[in-house]
């Protein structure tokens, strides 16, 4: 395919279908892994695991310093640059992981519950900051080239490897601790990161091990990293605050409900993932070129969301039977959070559109401001209200961010419509 050519009609649908197949194929794998974790570790240890995972989710994108998005941005417009951006991204990620990992270890006493085992934290940081970043970078090669079937392979393979490692752990004669659980995950992630790198090298050639491409665009990379990090603060701060201020048990219940909700959000994630490289391609022609794509995505996303919410509410009472008696309180939390599906859909669409149109800075500022509001609400509401306070803060922050991002997008469109033919604003 010509690197700059437009994919043929129907490619978006095929890519969405390919990603959806990947998401749905790995969903039962993740659910089995999730159920094994809740039943084996118990609600308290699962709450600690959820808090550590939330910290890793927030700091993981920061370790790559935005190089993953830069790879997608450039390789989606010119695939011949993928090789150099892959090498640059891997180099930057390796160095960034050391810095970010050291920072997390130093601040863990403030962020995480006192019960957190440092060995488990260190292992999970190695898996998520170092090894998972390799997998993500290799996956980005196939996102940029819109070969979503290969991204799907990587997407399915990682949870399969982790589940296999856990099953081996459970079959052994040793007792199961959070640290041993983390060790099994790190080994599996390491094995799969090597296989993912082999796939990427076969696709685009050996990486060019140089930071030069990144250093030319480090400011944009930091904006991408900040945007992803702040977005994950928005998504994950509730688990950390709950675990710290209301205890691991509350965090375990809340995180279990949240994990199930993420399963229901799977089709939307597939749709957005398939459309993301197109955001850059259409955005290169100006923000007006993004409007038809945004309308299509909004129609499909809201249509699914309006069906998913009642389904989640209806099925919520069945969840404790699967997870165990310790998770009896998951059902009302899950029903309360169900409205997150349409809220997150409505929030994600203008966010990705702003990124594709070249307004990542504005998106990052909006996310940062609302993330601060979210954390303040959590700190104020969790101590007196516990899980209910976390639910309320999360819903308010999600709705607020959606309103802010849509307002920004409409302002961008208004300015573009006012431009004169020579690209200047009329007097």
Automatic annotation (TrEMBL):
It comes from Ornithinimicrobium ciconiae. The keyword Transmembrane helix applies. It is a multi-pass membrane protein. InterPro entries: Poly_Biosynth_Transport, Polysacc_synth. Keywords: Cell membrane, Membrane, Transmembrane, Transmembrane helix. Coiled coil: none annotated. This is Oligosaccharide flippase family protein. Pfam families: Polysacc_synt (PF01943). The chain crosses the membrane at residues 12-36, 48-72, 84-112, 118-144, 156-176, 182-201, 301-320, 326-343, 364-383, 389-409. GO terms for cellular component: plasma membrane. Its main location: membrane. It is found in: Cell membrane.
